[in-house]
Design a protein that fits this description.
With 327 residues, the chain is an alpha/beta fold. It has eleven helices and ten strands. Strand 8, helix 8 and strand 9 form a beta-alpha-beta unit. The longest helix is centred in the middle third of the chain and has 17 residues. The structure holds ligand PBG.
Length: 327
């Protein structure tokens, strides 16, 4: 017997061999593009901490959706930036609220060729920047908040969302939303639950994108999960599945690959992962300095998220990666 006993390198010799035995294949089909739409602007506004991402006008938003659809990206998730904010975030559920207006226009533009997901939260709409309404002591009132989520879900469904995506981490939010949607006749509208969402420091650029400054301690540790915990994530996922979630999500992605893998093993539903703003910004910033090859790192990161078990990846790289995958 010759040494070495087993030659692993035979199947790595040529690009075609490597392609043949790849265990994970990233495709535009896996991707969801996050898009921001801002009320009351005439031109798209760049977001400094998210190079290449903008706050759209309803017009530029429709154009971008058409481009993504052409590139084979099957879905977009929409975030609204209202012209005015208030204590209870009421612009979130107004029929003329920015996301509702944008959803109607997008639906006209792309028909059923693109899945339209509406992020469902209040933080973009409240003047204090929290994901719900506040108690006198500044904490978020869970049960009053989920009533407002239910209202918002119906408004988003009515405006044409295929999927609503509650991201506020309130207890019982998925059940309350399912009941409200069914009660309003929207039994076909699905729920993508931000099930295991961590109180991460990686959301910074997103908060620039939606003009949010969080009042009080300046964080969401009272409702989002502690990064130290993985069993707790499985409890969150169980609850959301019981309450009627159609897709469960882990967020952020790269620092939580173990959580993605555990959730994948625990459920049969599609699992999504959100490669968040800070993850995108770090790649862009290092690439800008010439310290890393940004395109290669982006592909490596997204492939790893899929390898860990995600079926669906939300990423600001969606358009760029789809372009490069299409060759
Ligand atoms: C809450 C929401 C946030 C993100 C998506 N939905 C911010 C937060 O929880 O503070 C972050 C996404 C990102 O960083 O890319 N509506």
């Amino acid at each position: 017997m010759s040494f070495p006993e087993r030659r692993m390198r035979r199947l790595r010799r040529t690009p075609a061999l490597r392609r043949l035995v790849a265990e994970t294949r990233l495709s535009p089909d896996d991707l969801v593009a996050p898009l921001f739409v801002r009320e009351g602007i005439v031109d798209p506004q760049p977001i400094v901490s998210l190079p290449g991402v903008v706050q759209h006008t309803t017009h530029s938003l429709a154009k971008e959706a058409r481009r993504l659809s052409y590139l084979g990206v099957p879905a977009a998730i929409l975030f609204g930036v209202p012209a005015t904010k208030n204590a209870n975030g009421s612009q979130a559920w107004q029929p003329k609220g920015i996301v509702q207006v944008a959803l109607r226009e997008l639906r006209d533009e792309v028909g059923d060729s693109m899945v339209l997901i509406a992020d469902l939260c209040l933080d973009e709409y409240t003047d204090h920047g929290h994901c719900g309404v506040l108690n006198a002591d500044g904490s978020v009132d869970n049960d009053a908040t989920i009533e407002l989520y239910a209202r918002t879900a119906v408004a988003q469904a009515d405006a044409g969302a295929d999927i609503v995506a509650p991201s506020g981490m309130m207890d019982g939010q998925v059940g309350a939303i399912r009941e409200a949607l069914d009660g309003a006749g929207f039994t076909d509208i699905a729920i993508l639950a931000y099930a295991a969402k961590y109180a991460s420091a990686l959301y910074g650029p997103f908060r620039d994108a939606v003009d949010v400054t969080i009042a009080g301690a300046g964080d969401r540790k009272g409702y989002q999960q502690n990064p130290a915990n993985v069993r707790e994530a499985l409890s969150e996922v169980d609850l959301d599945v019981d309450e009627g979630a159609d897709i469960v999500m882990v967020k952020p992605a790269l620092a939580y690959l173990d959580v993605i893998a555990a959730v994948r093993r625990a459920v049969d539903l599609p699992v999504a992962a959100y490669h968040v703003s800070g993850e995108y910004a770090m790649v862009k910033a290092a690439a800008e300095r010439g310290w890393i090859d940004g395109d290669a790192v982006a592909l490596e990161h997204l492939t790893a998220i899929k390898r860990a078990g995600a079926d669906v990846i939300l990423t600001y790289f969606a358009g760029e990666i789809a372009e490069s995958l299409n060759g």
